[in-house]
Amino acid sequence: MDFETRWMEDFLALAATHSFSQAAERRHVTQPAFSRRIKALEAAVGVTLVDRSTTPVALTPEGQMFLITARNVVAQLHESISRLRGLQLNTQQVIEVAAAHSLAFSFFPDWVTTVKDVMDNLSLRLVAMNVEDAVHALREGHCDLMQVYYDSYATLQLDAHTFPSIPLAHTTMLPVCVPDAETGLPLYSLDASSDADIPLLAYTPGAFLGRTVRLLLKNDPILLRLRTVYETAMAEGLKGMALNGAGVAWVPKLCIERELEEGRLVVCGGEQWHAPLEIRLYRCALVRKPAIDKLWRRLEKAL
């Protein structure tokens, strides 16, 4: 298929601004030209990526999923160009971090900003993946650090001595859906006394956050009313479907703070259906790299 990498950078600008005019200004093109490039991108991938019926514009569920791919491809492209130009930092000082998809673009950027004072001359290379793959990468030595969720329901199978961790932040898994257009109340409610089915936007089997939800609801009568209508391994995908009114999804609060503040999503169940989550940074104690040791000591002192 005909494809231009600049279209992905256009798409990233649109995802960041939620505005065709602002994104066009950021990309230094006219709005009509920018709109044509986004349409060309959608034609190339064969799906609609942007919901133009909303103000501000929003990404479709497919757009939410493509956003991760676009970010990774653009980042890898820039890295390759830097290497070719001889601008890449000394590889001894580059630390590779495997992070859960939702953390990669909802938590990691802000976290890096808060710890920049302890980074010195170190450079981080971020790779987004699901939690299971991240754990495998850490165990096999394919990454230096791992940033993932931890919860009391579905703990990671990692020995604390071999894989020490540093707690970074706390969040909560919340059941959310769109509000009713007239009342502003949740379109679907876990607290309602009705016996009607509730459409569930679920994580695929094996997804870490899916285990958290299943263990949270274990033996609860609400399970009889939940009817799975959609599955994906990524929280961002579930958020996209929830924004389209397709059902109820359990999503980490840090991923939906903007949508909650704007009232585009509302919490649709009481605290008994909220699951606490912790964000942790892991390393393998068996791997001794001066750069990792130095950064780890500084992060521990910064707690």
What's a concise summary of this model?
This protein is of the alpha/beta class and 303 residues long. Helix content is 39%, strand content 22%.
What is the assembly state of the chains in this entry? single chain
Instruction: State the CATH topology of the largest domain.
Output: D-Maltodextrin-Binding Protein, domain 2
What do we call the CATH homologous superfamily of the largest domain?
Periplasmic binding protein-like II
Please work out how many helical segments DSSP would assign.
Answer: 11
Radius of gyration: 21 Å
Q: What's the CATH class of the largest domain, please?
A: Alpha Beta
Q: Look at the structure and give the mean pLDDT.
A: 86
H and E order: HHHEEHEHHEHEEEHEHEHEEH
What form results from the Cα inertia axes? globular
The tally of structural domains comes to 3
- CATH architecture descriptor text of the largest domain: 3-Layer(aba) Sandwich
Helical content stands at 25-40%
**Sheet with the most strands?**
9 strands, mixed
> What gap, in angstroms, lies between the N and C termini?
49 Å
What is the strand content? 15-25%
Q: What structural category characterises the helix and strand content?
A: alpha/beta
Pfam families: HTH_1, LysR_substrate
Keywords: DNA-binding, Transcription, Transcription regulation
Protein name: LysR substrate-binding domain-containing protein
InterPro entries: LysR_HTH_N (IPR000847), LysR_subst-bd (IPR005119), WH-like_DNA-bd_sf (IPR036388), WH_DNA-bd_sf (IPR036390)
Describe the structure.
It is a single chain. A hairpin with a 6-residue loop joins β1 (50-51) and β2 (58-59). The chain has three domains: 5-74, Arc Repressor Mutant, subunit A, CATH 1.10.10; 86-167 and 279-302, 3-Layer(aba) Sandwich (D-Maltodextrin-Binding Protein, domain 2); 171-277, D-Maltodextrin-Binding Protein, domain 2. The chain is 39% helix and 22% strand. The relative contact order is 0.14. The strands form two sheets. Strands 3, 4, 5, 6, 7, 8, 9, 10 and 11 form a nine-stranded mixed beta sheet that branches. The protein has a two-stranded antiparallel ribbon with strand order 1-2. Mean pLDDT is 86; it is low at 88-92. The protein has 303 residues and is of the alpha/beta class. It is built from eleven helices and eleven strands. α2 packs across α3 (31-45).
